[in-house]
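> tool_call: predict_assembly(chains=three)
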Amino acid sequence: MVDTRTDKEIIIKTDNVSIFYGAFQAVRNVFLDIPKNNVVAFIGPSGCGKSTLLRCYNRLNDLIPTAKVQGQITYSGTNLYDPRIDPVEVRRRIGMVFQQPNPFPKSIYDNVAFGLKIAGFKGNIDERVEQSLRKAALWEEVKDKLQQSGLSLSGGQQQRLCIARTIAVEPEVILMDEPCSALDPISTVQIENLIHELKEKFTIVIVTHNMQQAARVSDKTAFFNAGAEDGGSRFGYLVEYDDTRNIFGSPKQEKTQEYISGRFG
Amino acid sequence: MTPLSPQANLLGSEFAIAPNRKLFGKVMTGMVFACVAISLIPLASILFMVIANGIAGFSPAVFTDLPPAAGMQGGGLRNAIVGTFITCLIGGIISVPFGVLTAIYTIEFSQGNWIFHFVRFCTNVLSGVPSIIAGLFAYGIVVLMTGSFSAVAGGVALSVLMLPTIVRTAEEGLKSVPKTTRMAAVGIGATNFQSVTQIVLPSAMPFIATGVTLAIARAAGETAPLLFTALFNQYDVQGVWQPTATLSVLIYNFAISPYKNQQQLAWVAALIILVIILGISIVARVISRRKVY
Amino acid sequence: MKTPRQNSTETLLEASTQFNPVRAIDQNFRRVTFGLAIGIGLILVWITYSLLVIALPAIQTFGLGFLVDSTWDPVKNIYGALPHVYGTVLSSFLALLFAVPLGVGVAIFLTENFLAPKILQPIAFTVELLAAIPSVVYGLWGLFVFLPTIKPLFQGLNHSFGWIPFFSTEPGGRQLLGASLVLAIMILPTIIAISRDTLTSLPPKLRQGAYGLGATRWETIVLVLLPAALSGIVGSIMLALGRALGETMAMAMLIGNANQANISWLAPASTLSSLIANQFGEASGLQKSSLFYEALILMVLTLVVNILAQALVSRFQQVE
């Protein structure tokens, strides 16, 4: 595994991480560094643990009582799983956009303002809401109906609203868990364009089933695969992590080659 | 397996439904219809009698006058209507926060641990506690302590009876809010408190409101828990620490009194209670339609 | 409170470890809800304890003999619960005798598509209404409508079957059998609701299998569905029994409040709860304490029945 951009500042360092659900090992021994202001894509067949790993980056796995993380994840030099760390503070710095658009059953305005209010934002909320909706390429469509319910929007609009909601609190990292899998092709293109613009300011980690999407949006790609032990229990592991053009142009691992050429997965 | 010959007449074949099997079915069907009829007759009779007798005794004075003393004519239910409202309100003030916060623990925080099952068990047991026991409990902890029968004592007794309904419906309501919504709130850095109070609870509100109204409807008709707590009062309520008249206790007192006028008022009070309960149930149904999810 | 970006020099560790009112509220909120969840259990203990405290003098005076003593004499200050336990158990038993077949019948009617759903829904709603009517209104109706109407029938029973001990007394205005019938109507909705839920939650393959073998509708119901739903139905009966045992107002108004255990169902009787409702107002001292003793017996009875019912109903739901 060669990192061609060692000059880049690393924002999240994944150091020999294994994730367990009870006795079941979901992810095994992952080493993976995420450089600042890059888009990193996680690809691989389902059950390979890519979403599981993503959720560890903002400690959403804490919500699952049996989940346990081994190894070390450091964010800007701080161990995320240090017992002194408050997961709420982690999530304010590392936001998450989910697979299914999940706006709150509140107005469009309140959806975006919610994060600001809970973070104790003291500035001009109206202004920040507008900024965030503009950045999420949604402002023009909703500026006349900010008081309507967020649930009244189309699927693609809802997902952009969720992105606006996430960027409003200005996290450093945005995690996206298959953000386009529930959307139509046109909305998908809009979100992908958005990701391109967002990387100016944010670091983005995106999980996707769609290899073309990974190729289009990401700077670096990590390919995960599901392995099986002799006993038959499955676990996910990292096969290859490199610049996206290398992964898709000249993968070093045979498994990666097979996957991106569509021979399995 | 031999195929059936084309000529085989189904009725004549050995596989046909024998007459006694058919008869058995007819008898049973008849019995089931009879069950329904027998069950509905009392209901029809109760509704009819309450409405007929209630309307016969009805006059505007019902809302403006105090209950008549034994043997007197006329009179109304003014203080009892107010008293029912007050005792139910006190019951709600105690049980709603208690029940909703308990449900928040079991659904949002317990993650299915032993307390989740413990609360489930206790609410089920509590809902089976006879209402008169709730009354004796409130007598023991409020009336004996304060030295007086009171609306508060009545409210405490009612709150014990309302609690299980409220916990259960609040749990249902919280469960109706999708996990993804909680994830969304927590995912952008909300604390559990912020997520629950600002996102989950408002979304679950129609459910919870339904539960609360149904619990209040049930409480409005309760009599046994009020007999030794709110007691009764011939006059207007002077305060929540005084004995308080309620419609349900008034029905009991007047039904077993020998005076026609008081019996008549008992029917009127029954009509008012039924209207309140039905009205609240309908309101509850309307609220529950306004579900967010 | 600062947002991360307003003070970017603040590290994650600093933000996590320094005092933060939002975090403090969150932790205390969790503690409060936890306390109240535990509080539900404490209420049950508290109820039992508060009954016990007041009942203590009577328990010390009469011991367990209270249960089998049929004296109730405020003058001599001797009390026993036998007639009331007898009345409670017998009236509940009689109520179940009528309500179980009726309730299961209605539940079958509501689940097995005898009529179009358009007609079934109002009937189901009407049955729910039965549950919403307060007990004191049942009492009022029983007193002025039902008992006078049914009295000739009871007189007939007495004249024709007076040689059976159960019908051996001339029926008065209020008696055990009439009260039990009203009680049966009151517990009907409980039996119907849970039996119905149980029947609808049976896997469709049971029905399909039976019909596929050529069973008629009723053979399917009697031989396949009812046995499969048995534990749920029994659970509903137990819950109804719990309700019947504790029912107060209708019983206090209809059962006649006689402090005696009579073999005849047509004689007035009393139950634990009706006795408490009737005598509490005038009672004091040992008599009041004895009433709380009776309440304690009632509490234990209903607790046992309800816990058994829960076990049955929840076992069924797990099988689902």
